[in-house]
Amino acid sequence: LGGNCQGQPFEQMRDIRKHGQDVTLTLTIDCSLSDDYLRAIAKDLRTFGRMRLRINHECTGDWFTHNQRFSREEIGAFFVRFCKIIKEESPNVQTVFCAGAVKDLEDPECRMDGEIEYGDAYRETDIWSMDCYLALHYGWPFDVCEKDGKTYAVTPVESFYQRLKKSSVGLTKLNYGEKKPLIVSEF
């Protein structure tokens, strides 16, 4: 409240728009903020035209800071509340919800991680996202990947593809049969 749109990340967003590109902004935000703050953020974003807003991405992970202070239900309810404010104040901003993926590739029901706690958020958002990686070094920059090490993962391409495909099926079921775009934001 009472802030301005100078400085970062606003300078970068203006630069992206100058080059004719659409902005994708990842915003990790405290779930206890009042509607006044959320409305102010939404109004600031309105000035950037079309954009995608990833709100509290990867919120199923134990590394997600707000999981220490809020339950999954509270995080999901916050997303829905902020999403509705965004749609009121900034109709050109599409929201992106990134909470997980299909739990088990062998599950014929294609159940999603957090589908109960995050069901309303999955339904409210404009775009589904999963942060899945073909290769990920989660120990960086503190260590070097060593053969048989414990700080990295490599996913076979076919498993990666099947997780995306089955997650789309699971999310569509969760959304009462309506399919939405599914992206891999950090691919």
Fold and architecture overview:
34% of the residues lie in helices and 14% in strands. It is globular, with a radius of gyration of 18 Å. The chain has a five-stranded parallel beta sheet. The protein has a two-stranded antiparallel sheet with strand order 5-6. It has five helices and seven strands; from the N terminus they run αβαβαβαβββαβ. Strand 1 (23-27), helix 2 and strand 2 form a beta-alpha-beta unit. The protein has helices at 10-18, 35-46, 72-89, 119-124, 157-174, and strands at residues 23-27, 51-55, 93-98, 127-129, 135-137, 152-154, 182-183.
Total of helices: 5
Shape: globular
The biggest sheet, with number of strands, parallel, antiparallel or mixed sense and barrel status, is: 5 strands, parallel
Category from helices, strands and their pairing? alpha/beta
Low-confidence stretches: none
Rounded to an integer in angstroms, the radius of gyration calculated over CA atoms is 18 Å
Residue-averaged pLDDT: 91
Distance between the termini: 34 Å
Strand content: 5-15%
Strand order of the largest sheet: 1-2-3-4-7
Summarize the amount of helix as a percent range. Answer: 25-40%
Q: Write the H/E string, N to C.
A: HEHEHEHEEEHE
Give the tally of β-strands: 7
